[in-house]
User: Fold these one by one.
Assistant:
Number 1:
Amino acid sequence: MDDAGGEGALLTATVRTVAQTGSTNADLAELARGGAGEGLWLRAERQTAGKGRQGRAWVSPAGNLYASTLVRLRPSDPSPATLALVAAVALEETVAVFGVHATLKWPNDLLVDGAKLSGILLERVEDAVIIGFGVNLAEAPDGLDRAATSLTAHGVTPDPQLFAETLAESFERWLARWRGEGLATVRDRWIARAHPLGTALTARLADGSSLDGLFDGLDAGGALMLRLADGSVRVIHAADVFLL
């Protein structure tokens, strides 16, 4: 749907649901190329070709959340990459609505008691960014390179449609703040909901090397700051990050 109300208007998000598709991100990418407007959400009860970051497959059994939305970029917007922070704070807020305390881990994971609850995938399509959310509501996958959990394991199993609608409302609010107040507001919220400063991390870089250090917050552009053993701070723009 189009932002007919102008720069400061909030959209009224609508979540469309299908029984099954290959990937909600792929479907929205096609709609974006066809001119679909901002505020559209697509949820699938099942995915047959779900994907995560760096081309990983995303296991998609029924009962979990698989949903994507579309943001049309404007010249005055902050960096498109920082929509990952917008998505993360909106998702953390939504999980809290359903009574579970989650912790943010850079770049956009939610953890509950140290185990991964969700994933967020951003993909650029022309002047749009497609943002996909996968959340383990009913069950968590096995065989990952890290511990995973679900909301059911913590005593609550939200209806996926209700969860998606709640998430859409939260994302809409944080998107408006990202545009109206700038990245700093979103960044501050992200840091407030993250694991504490000084948390030991390993960053696995794209070239296969790894860096161990302590979480030192985010820089002004939303990149990870990792304090190394020699006291220097390394700014990391892309990596897989693990808690030690």
Number 2:
Amino acid sequence: MDTILPPELVAAAQRVVTENLAAGRRVCVAESCTGGLVAAAITEIPGSSDIFESGFVTYSNDAKLDMLKVSSDVLETFGAVSIATAWSMAQGALELSGADVAVAITGVAGPGGGTEKKPVGTVVFARAEKGADPGHVVADRRDFGDIGRGGVRLQAALCALELLLPVAVETP
């Protein structure tokens, strides 16, 4: 396949397309620190239009407020890089897109912008699914370390793609 993206990113995106197509699900992403990398990876795959609904790149807090309807109280209280913000981004993307599942990514890619509590390499993810209990928050914080801006963005994109895979439901 002719691509400028790293092979591991393309392979992960291929799994997202294949497995969501089999599950009959459409996906959406809300990206901040990855700047559209997850959407780019998914749309690199032929046939992705069958599962990819939309992507929001909300890099600034104003974009998170305006485009995804993240509450200013959430941003002011918890900050842009928080589970509360990622969860709000995922919920907003899900509601605005009409997709079956939405994943949000927000973090500190570096080289600057880190703090003691949220150092460079801190990334937060959240997944929202249509019909799921909104009180059940699916979110995680990962600390990749200062592996370079490109490294943080790549690792964050790989994690986000993993979250877009359908979860197998075990039957008793």
Number 3:
Amino acid sequence: MDITIYHNPACGTSRNTLALIRNTGVEPQVIEYLQQPPTRETLADLIARAGLSVREAIRQKGTPYLEQGLDQTQISDENLLDAMLAHPILINRPFVVTPLGVRLCRPSEVVLDILPLPQLGGFVKEDGEAVIDAQGKRVVPHA
């Protein structure tokens, strides 16, 4: 099974997403994008295949977003990509690639939409939120 996650081990959402992938019995290719940033072409492709704009794929919190002036609406997608490649922390995470598509998995359970194999058992996120029950079925949040 060919699954790739662009992962930041310091990010809870990224850790939860990786754990949900592993809960299918698959060990994905893990790319720690802060150490191994994607190429410009790969990054642009991930963003496009996820159905996002470049601006939607940029991370603001805990990054040099404001210091770089990236909040200015006239900044082109090309310049935003340049900034993301110069400062990979600006790349929102985690992006996951499977045979069923590409998603920016925020929240982490978005990954369930593109995992080809079922969950093998229960899963609870780091914050205690149950996502998958003991039978491997998605938990429906109470409204």
Number 4:
Amino acid sequence: MSPLSLAVRDSSTMLRRNLLHARRYPSLTLNLLLTPVMLLLLFVYIFGDAMSAGLGGGADRSDYIAYLVPGLLLMTIGSTTIGTAVSVSTDMTEGIIARFRTMAIHRGAVLIGHVIGSVLQCVMSVVLVGAVAVAIGFRSTDATVLEWVAAFGLVTLFALALTWIAVGMGLVSPSAEAASNNAMPLIFLPLISSTFVPLHSMPGWFQPIAEYQPFTPAIETLRGLLLGTPIGHNGWLAIAWCVGLAVLGYFWSASKFNSDPK
């Protein structure tokens, strides 16, 4: 077999391993998935009327649902990738990686399996949260087929970028608990973005913090694709953030994995 065929075969094996782990131990995924679902229900049914005032123009709860859901979908990705950091750290600290290093398998297959498995879990989590959103009233009637395809591509690319960052966090963490704590910015950043309220309704000193981070342009781009709101320069910024984070996470992870003596 060619080196490429061996790499694909070994990566597929590692992917099946990670998916089996996720199926046998679903509690971590479910716990992380509950965070965006609970926030969705909380902000719609408890704070919905009050938060909709920040949208202006006589917006009501249904308008706020439409505004909120795109941000919560991307927050779901950040929350799901925390499980990836924990899984990678567990592999590194429990000795299985040392065993893999002694076997005739492609060196990068372990990380590739984690990344592909995480992206698949992120997409499935987004679908589940999206289903809850539809059940409580979210609609995207103006989006064309092309815009839906673009939205799916953005979600996948964003999941890939955050997954590589989560893998790097897992590799540098001494334990699964530390990996979970180190990856908390992946949930914290959406809380200080345009997920819940528009940037113009925030205090002036806080607006740059919310604007110049990866989640806000991605959220505004997804919001524009699903709801027809102006995207402006956010589309290019979102792609640049995704590509930059994916490249940074890849080289960070590869460097740490290849240099780790364990």
